[in-house]
Every structure is written in structure tokens, then in C-alpha cells.
Write a structure and sequence with these properties.
The complex is a heterodimer.
Chain A: H1 2-9, H2 11-26, H3 30-54, H4 63-90, H5 92-97, H6 104-130, H7 142-166, H8 170-183, H9 199-203, H10 206-220, H11 226-250, H12 254-257
Helix pairs in contact in A: 2-6, 3-4, 4-6, 4-7, 4-8, 4-10, 6-7, 7-10, 7-11, 10-11
Chain B: E1 7-21, H1 28-33, E2 40-54, E3 58-62, H2 69-77, E4 84-89, E5 93-96, H3 109-119, H4 124-138, H5 153-165, E6 171-175, H6 183-198, E7 202-206, H7 210-216, E8 219-224, E9 227-233, H8 234-244
Parallel strand pairs in B: 3-7, 3-8, 5-6, 6-7
Antiparallel strand pairs in B: 1-2, 1-4, 8-9
The chains are: A mainly alpha, B alpha/beta.
The complex binds adenosine-5'-triphosphate and magnesium ion.
Magnesium ion binds near residues 69, 70 and 175 of chain B.
Chain lengths: ~260, ~250
């Protein structure tokens, strides 16, 4: 309960750090939004050109839209995690000087990345409309899937942000792990396209189910698989508790470790 | 009925040691490689501190350099935690240990008031209400919309102090910051702290300026080699302190 009270008491700090983050990214201008869209668009273009060549024959229909639906949520996932691995150290000057609930730092990073994700969803919508797929009524489940991913990220970010204070080079390791995980998640391929012997990798990967759900909503236009999503949600919430426990233990020495 | 605690701060048998790594291994690789070789000194800074501070009391914390005064204040604010023992505080607490946390040089003084005050846990509305008061106290009206990087170091400290002192906390921890600003501003700070003391705020005040300790505090605690050497009426303690450290 102390956790929620702390967040509530320091809500202004949470709010300013999120809005500073978002404003910094978009620089209050249309051009800023354009720049922040350019990177995912280029990535989509590259994958859409290269991967059909690699996977001769077995292509997915409207492959560009297919990639887009996977890549945008993935970018949310990987940017949030790599940014939380720096956040405590980056804010070392305030961590050393004042008391405030330290968990505000990872939470504000994940939250501002979630807002960025919602803004980037414009790209997905532009693609499904542009390719004539259209929007379905299943879009009402979008907030639910987003919430599942948000909890998953909060749980991971508690662990990542606190452990990296003690082991600085973990940041590089996380960067590499995220690159590997990219290929262990059905982003540029459909789950059915990989050999039976590798299926377990994507089956144990929670991001598989989240990306599948976003694809169900926007690309396949069907009901997401709520059973799997429920399992991921349960795991994510468990991870939030475990993560907070670890964070809470480790935060006692943050000021001394920097 | 709400229970009224008698004490604002209770320090119970607190020990604090710092591990000083002579070759700090910050990475996993180094920690693995130099598993056993990490040369480490354990520095015992506080060795069994017991201290109860009543609500509304103003206490001066004195002692030579390195005696652990700042460490004790940091423990009270929960920036660091004790190895053993417990510290309990009752009421909203503000620490003026290091001023200007969260200041961004490129933003204006006014914006920095918001950043800084939000770190102290104030809401937007509370900051709005105090804004005029803070600007007035800092006497930086003409500069308040200029970027903070154009301030002199004294002006910077004045703004930071003005924010911290106007947070409206019940407990105020102050570490040697009266050396900021010019003569006029120092006097103003002392007046403000007297005013807060008279309003019944609890204050712990670390200083080497024994004159202002006498002026502000009725009780003094002398730290020496990690233990409390003397605790009592400010005049008596300060006298002994001056005698022994001559
Ligand atoms: N992070 C740290 N790591 C290692 N040692 C530390 C750390 N912080 C403080 N110390 C040691 O703890 C001791 C007490 O330091 P502290 O800053 O509390 O002294 P102080 O009484 O405030 O002194 P001063 O009058 O100079 O401000 C010193 O010996 C210092 O070297
Ligand atoms: Mg000190």
C-alpha cells in the first residue's frame, strides 16, 4: 500500500517526468512527430523488402501490414526495456540528493513509451486503411492488450532498472538479448512459418501472445486469444510483484552505488 | 482519534558502514574476474546512535569534519539506509542537504521551481500557490524567466533554497547551507528558519557556524568518531566542544 501512496503523493513528479519525456521527443511540433515516425517506417520498409527475398515462396498476404502490426508493439517493448536499464543512473544526481519513491523513474519511462506507442498506432491504422483491410470492431480490445503489455513491461523494468545499477555492463547484455529476442518473436514471420523444433521458443515468449493479439485486432480482424492473453496477464502481474520486491531491496543502496 | 506522537524523529541503535572499494568493479565481468581480489575497506561511520527528537525541537548537530553528521541526516531522509537499527520519522520531511536537485540549466528559473518542488513531492496546485512566495524570497524576480545557466552560483543557491524552505514540511533537515548567498541573504535565511522554528517545525541543523547554532537551537548533539559524545543544552555542549577541539 505504501507503494501506491508514494506514487500518489509524488504524482506531480510522475506527471512532469512523463510530459518532459514526451515533449522532448516530439518537440511540440508536427515535424517532431514526423521524425519519430520515420524510424519505424524505414524499418518496416527494410523488412518488407528483405524478408520476402529470404523466405522464398512462403510469403504472408499483405506482408508489409503484417510486419507493421508486429514491429510497432515490439519497438514499444524494446525501447522501454533498454531505456529503463539507464534510467536510475541517468537520474543519479537527484537519486543521490533527495528522497522520492525511486520506482517513479522506471514507471515514468514505461508510461511515456506507452504513450508513444499509442501515438505510433496511427502508423498501423494508416497501413490497414491504405491496404484496404479496414478497421474492425475488435479494435475495442486494443486497450486491454496494451494494458497487458504495460504490466509486463512494468514488471521487467523494476528488475532491469535496479539490477543494472549494480552491474553496469548488463546494459550491453540487454541490448544483445533484445536483438536475439527480436528473432524469437513472430514479428517478421508468422508463428506457423518456423520449424516444429523451434516452436517452443516462441511458445515461452510472452511477447508472442501480445503481438498475436495486436495482429488479431488489426490484421486478421478476429477475436484475440483471451486465454493466452489472460495467462500472460497473470504472469505479468506476478512479475510486477517479484520485480517490485527486488527493486525495493536494491534501491536502498542506489545512492551509495553511484 | 489520531494518535499524537511525541517524537518527530526516533533513531534507534543505528549503525552505518560504507564499503570503500579501492578498485571499484562496476561490471559483471570485473566482479566475476576479481571475485576474491576486490580490495575493500569497511568504514564504520556511525556506531550505535540513539537519538530522539521531539516535535517542535530545534537541534544542532555538531562535530569535526568526517564525524558522520551528513551521513546521519541522509539516513533520516532515507537517501541511504542503516546497516543495523531503525529510524522512524513522523510527519512530512524535507531535507536541505544538497540544493538544486533536478535543476536543468537550460530551463528558466520559473520552470525549475516546478521541477524542483515536484521532487519534494508537491502537486502542481501547491506549487502554483507558493510560486509568488518562492520568487519573492529568492529576490530573483527580474531573472526568473532567464535560463538558470545564466545565474551566478549564489543566485542559483538562492533559488534552490527558496524552493526547499517553502515546501511546508513538518521536519526540516538542514546541512551547512547557510554559507550560500551574501551576508544579506544569509541573515534572511536565518530569519526564515527562526520563523519556522517558532511555528513549531522540527529542525535538525548541521553547522560549523557555532554562532548560528546557538542562535537557532536550544539543544545540541555532538558527534565524535561515530558516537554521540554529548547531548544537551546548546551553550554547554558548544562550550565543551570548543574546549576539546582547540
Ligand atoms: N558514500 C560514501 N562512501 C564511503 N565513505 C563515505 C561515504 N559517505 C561518507 N563517507 C565517510 O563517512 C564519514 C563521515 O562523513 P560525513 O559526510 O557524514 O561527515 P560530516 O560529519 O558531514 O563531515 P563534514 O563536516 O566535513 O561535512 C567520512 O569519513 C566519509 O569519508
Ligand atoms: Mg557534511
Amino acid at each position: 500500500m505504501g507503494f501506491f501512496k508514494g506514487l500518489y503523493d509524488y504524482r506531480e513528479l510522475l506527471k512532469t517526468s512523463i510530459s518532459k519525456d514526451i515533449r522532448g521527443k516530439y518537440k511540440n511540433s508536427i515535424l517532431g512527430i514526423f521524425w519519430s515516425f520515420l524510424n519505424p517506417l524505414l524499418q518496416i520498409a527494410v523488412y518488407a523488402l528483405v524478408f520476402p527475398l529470404l523466405m522464398r515462396g512462403s510469403t504472408v498476404e499483405n506482408y508489409t501490414v503484417f510486419i507493421c502490426c508486429g514491429l510497432i508493439p515490439w519497438t514499444f517493448f524494446s525501447t522501454a526495456i533498454s531505456r529503463t536499464s539507464f534510467t536510475i543512473i541517468e537520474n543519479g544526481n537527484i537519486v543521490k540528493k533527495v528522497y522520492f519513491p525511486r520506482e517513479i523513474l522506471p514507471i515514468s519511462v514505461v508510461t511515456s513509451e506507452a504513450i508513444n506507442f499509442v501515438i505510433s498506432t496511427i502508423i498501423i491504422i494508416a497501413f490497414v486503411l491504405g491496404y484496404g483491410i479496414g478497421l474492425s470492431k475488435y479494435i475495442i480490445f486494443y486497450p486491454i492488450v496494451l494494458l497487458v503489455q504495460y504490466f509486463l513491461l512494468i514488471g521487467i523494468s523494476f528488475i532491469v532498472s535496479s539490477v543494472t545499477v549494480y552491474f553496469r555492463d548488463l546494459q550491453h547484455f540487454i541490448g544483445i538479448a533484445l536483438q536475439l529476442l527480436f528473432y524469437a518473436t513472430p514479428i517478421v514471420y508468422a508463428p506457423g512459418q518456423i520449424p516444429e523444433s523451434f516452436q517452443w521458443i516462441i511458445q515461452y515468449n510472452p511477447m508472442t501472445y501480445i503481438i498475436n493479439a495486436f495482429r488479431d485486432i488489426f490484421y486478421y480482424q478476429q477475436m484475440p486469444d483471451f486465454v493466452s492473453l489472460g495467462v500472460v496477464l497473470a504472469i505479468s502481474i506476478a512479475l510486477c510483484f517479484i520485480g517490485y520486491f527486488i527493486f525495493h531491496k536494491l534501491q536502498k543502496k542506489f545512492a551509495e552505488e553511484m | 482519534m489520531k494518535k499524537e506522537e511525541e517524537y518527530a524523529i526516533e533513531v534507534q541503535d543505528v549503525y552505518k558502514t560504507f564499503d570503500v572499494y579501492l578498485d571499484k568493479a562496476n561490471s559483471l565481468k570485473e566482479k566475476m574476474l576479481f571475485w576474491k581480489r576486490n580490495r575493500k575497506e569497511v568504514r564504520e561511520v556511525l556506531k550505535g546512535i540513539n537519538l530522539n527528537i521531539k516535535k517542535g525541537e530545534a537541534v544542532a548537530l555538531i562535530g569535526v569534519n568526517g564525524s558522520g553528521k551528513s551521513t546521519l541526516l541522509k539516513l533520516m531522509t532515507k537517501i541511504i539506509y542503516p546497516n543495523k537499527g531503525k529510524i522512524i520519522t513522523h510527519g512530512k520531511l524535507t531535507s536541505l542537504l544538497e540544493l538544486g536537485a533536478g535543476f536543468h540549466a537550460d530551463f528558466s528559473g520559473r520552470e525549475n521551481i516546478y521541477f524542483n518542488a515536484s521532487i519534494f513531492g508537491l502537486t502542481k496546485k501547491e506549487i502554483d500557490n507558493r510560486l509568488e512566495q518562492i520568487i519573492e524570497f529568492s529576490e530573483l524576480k527580474d531573472y526568473i524567466d532567464n535560463p538558470v545557466r545564466t545565474y551566478s552560483s549564489g543566485m542559483f543557491m538562492r533559488l534552490a533554497f527558496a524552493v526547499a524552505i517553502n515546501v511546508d514540511a513538518d521536519i526540516l533537515l538542514v546541512d551547512e547551507i547557510l554559507s550560500v548567498g551574501d551576508q544579506h541573504f544569509q541573515a534572511k535565511c536565518i530569519d526564515k528558519m527562526k520563523e519556522l522554528r517558532n511555528e513549531g517545525k522540527t529542525m535538525v541543523f548541521v553547522t560549523h557556524s557555532l554562532g548560528s547554532a546557538k542562535e537557532l537551537c536550544d539543544r545540541a548533539v555532538w558527534l565524535s568518531n561515530g558516537v554521540i559524545k554529548m547531548d544537551g543544552d546548546t551553550n554547554t555542549v558548544v562550550e565543551r566542544y570548543i574546549e576539546e577541539t582547540k
